[in-house]
Amino acid sequence: MRTDVTARAPACPDRVRELRYPAGDVLVVSGLPGSGKSTLIKRAVRDEAVLCIDSQDARARVERRLPPGLRRLPYALYRPVVRGAHYAALRRALRSGTSLVVHDCGQWPWVRRWLARGAARRGGSLHVLLLAVDPEVALAGQAARGRTVSPAAFRHHRRAMDRLTRSALAPGGVPGAATTRVLDRAAATALRAITFG
Questions:
Q1: Could you count the other beta carbons within 10 Å of the beta carbon of residue 91?
Q2: Which of 11-20, 51-60, 83-92, 110-119 is predicted least confidently?
Q3: Which segments of the chain does DSSP mark as H helices, in order?
């Protein structure tokens, strides 16, 4: 396993403009809610042949199918349906064999293990790209996008991201990942392209 620490607060010694991975591999982009995962993926992954799986897309699909009278339901009530749709999309994407970028909250280590096994079964590897931003920056990002998580959920996300960041910065990186790269906000902004092949 290799760990590439691109940036670790407060220093940022290396700001790359492009990250390249082998064709057919799986890249997991993790970070706090509001850290800029979706923005980075939309900006940097421009190859239409690369599948990008974001749980927010599954949520939007489920919400579009809700009858008008149920659209005000709290998200917690239909979250299991959204997660089921998200994991079904991930399973289909893994079976396709194409290069894959996964938007991940970083809470569930079993998801990374599952993705690593799926990548290995198709002859590829799992890579982790971690956006390590201050909680205040992530909260501002949530406010800017107009979609926030509850204080309790955010605390849970912070604990999970603290564990993942410690793992990412340790020798060997994230278990199951062929490479681990940590970006602060400046390094994430400098990154312009994520390519496969």
A1: 12
A2: 11-20
A3: 37-44, 55-65, 75-96, 109-121, 135-145, 151-169, 185-190
At CA 188, angle to CA 91 and CA 84, rounded to 5?
A: 20
- Could you give the CA distance from residue 174 to residue 135 in angstroms, rounded to a whole number? 21
Output the six-digit token pair for 184: 């602060």
CA 164-50-89 angle, to 5 degrees, is 70
pLDDT of residue 75: 84
Q: How confident is the model at residue 11 (pLDDT cuts 50, 70, 90)?
A: very low
Joined tokens for residue 177: 């990942």
- Which residues is 100 bridged to in the sheet? 26, 51
Give me the phi and psi of 65, to 5 degrees please: -90, -10
Question: What confidence score (pLDDT) does residue 14 get?
Answer: 57
